[in-house]
Amino acid sequence: xxxxxxxxxxxxxxxxxxxxxxxxxxxxxxxxxxxxxxxxxxxxxxxxxxxxxxxxxxxxxxxxxxxxxxxxxxxxxxxxxxxxxxxxxxxxxxxxxxxxxxxxxxxxxxxxxxxxxxxxxx
Length: 122
Known about the structure:
25% of the residues lie in helices and 38% in strands. The protein is an alpha+beta fold. The chain has a domain at 56-122. A four-stranded antiparallel beta sheet has the order 1-2-4-3, with helices on one face. It starts with 13 loop residues before the first helix and ends with a strand.
């Protein structure tokens, strides 16, 4: 079997590399990357595909993330609720054999709110 020229992951952007990137696409990629970073920093999860016209994300019901995005000029709309498995949903306290207090953290399902907004500002 011949060796791959670009490494094992060179297939990922094959179509993207064949066409020249215009300025609008480059700006859209940069906007998407910065919004993903902002949403993740504020405890949200981006669930839309890159370069989609509408960005969808999930957050906890008491999150201020939708308000913060609205303050930045985006038209944020509530799109429903969904569930997500997270690694720290359940916290269990117990006493071990030596009567020391211990805590275990388990995976669990939480309810999240789903929001969406167009990738253009008002």
